[in-house]
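Researcher: Please generate the 3D structure of the following complex. Treat every line as part of one assembly.
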Amino acid sequence: MKLMINGQEQELDLAPDMPLLWALRDHAHLTGTKFGCGMAQCGACTVHIDGQATRACITPVSSVEGKSITTIEGASKDSKVTQALQAAWLANNVPQCGYCQSGQLMSATALLTQKPKPSDEEINSFMSGNICRCATYQSIKTAIKQAAASLA
Ligand code: FES
Ligand code: FES
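Model: Done. Output below.
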């Protein structure tokens, strides 16, 4: 199966119904995308498919053939929005255990790409599917606003 991952075509030996998350982690060796719940409930596995934040744990690889798949590894290299968010994340000491944070950054990147100046309500609503057991929600919101200001 041919998948376009972070701008590069990769030919991988995959069952069509394999979740994209396994293909990324176990076959493409991109381990920045995390497994949390496996049921689209936590957001740890968030990647972008054609720019849309998508839960890789419930996305069969057969559904993303021919589409553009972006992981945290590609976004942190190629996306100015992700880079601004990462700088704000560091400035605000957002990560605690860190496990949820690549998913948080991928959702935040999708948010700022669609809405460069989100309101508090829009941030809360868009980010509500990303769970953080270390409860970094307030610092995530502060960092998103700081990144939005730095990109303006
Ligand atoms: S692992 Fe995919 S949403 Fe939790
Ligand atoms: S930083 Fe620990 S789960 Fe979010």
